[in-house]
Write a structure and sequence with these properties.
mainly alpha, about 90% helix
């Protein structure tokens, strides 16, 4: 959701917030061996990073 909102508003801060949230979620999912959720978080993280790169 943060990625979509950041893209719509062209807001770097939202993209950075999305990256932080995805990284945190990814760490938790990996620790808990929740592979499906980790894969989703990796995808979301990549999208957030791409958005931030686009906005720079």
């Amino acid at each position: 959701m943060l990625v979509d909102l950041g893209a719509a508003r062209k807001d770097k801060a939202l993209a950075e917030e999305a990256i932080a949230a995805c990284q945190e979620a990814l760490g938790i999912f990996r620790d808990k061996k929740m592979d499906d959720l980790a894969a989703g978080s990796e995808k979301n993280l990549a999208e957030a990073q791409a958005l931030l790169a686009e906005l720079h």
